[in-house]
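Why do we care about 3D structure at all? Because function follows from shape, and shape follows, mostly, from sequence. That is the central idea of this module. The next example makes it concrete: a single protein chain, its amino acid sequence, and then its structure expressed as tokens.
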Amino acid sequence: MYIINSRGEQEQFSLQKVERSARRVGANFKLAREIAQQIERKIYNGIPTFEIFKEVKELLNQAQPVLGLKFSLKQAMRDLGPDGFAFEKYAGAIFREAGYAVKLNQFISGKCLSQYEIDFTAEKAGILKIGECKYHSQASDLMVDQEIALANYARFADILQGKFALSKISQGKKISSILITNTKFSTRAIQYSECSGVELWGWKYPFNKGLEVFIDQNKLYPITILPSFKKQWADLFNQRNIILAGDILKLNLERISRESNISLAVFNKMTAEAKTLLEG
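And the structure:
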């Protein structure tokens, strides 16, 4: 049986892949196997992966609603778009929750070039990370390739010799480069970055310590994961720094409803969904 992936390519259906996707969000072995078997009975040659995704999510919802919510994480990160700025803010929010002092969109000097625009810096306890974000809003199987890894390291190497970095180093700061994506890294991008000392953080990388694992463990889900959230509100929420699902629980809902022209009932529904997700 063949399916059509998000790039429009044909690939063989994998029962194990469906099981793993259910297990990733917390389904036990028995539930994951039952879901995979139900999917296997329903699929047909040429079924697009988004239909399989939709069916798996529905089955998880029926079993445990919190699992259905978590299953939407990859799509929720794609929905942060359409451009990469929202993903940069999301990455910054994650580092802040991890105890870093974060600055977005910094202009930093190098040796060869006087200025580089950096997506973010994250600083904590003698550590300074120079962060570069690579975001894809379309196909989830697009990868960050070696060209991006090469360009990232070349920029970082020049920054290390510039006034900004030399000043931080003189203060005892350890400076490192980190490349973050909501998708995966190619094998060559991984090989080069590991060799050059660049930290990579993306979907399922590092193994068992990928971005999705950290998000699940620390419940740092994007606001876009909530079913009641609509994509046309993305700019509005970004402008108000409502980035994480947990941010909705800190709001004065009546005031934000008046200011945004979004009904209070919708905000109450999002609040209930956030509690299900974060307390489950």
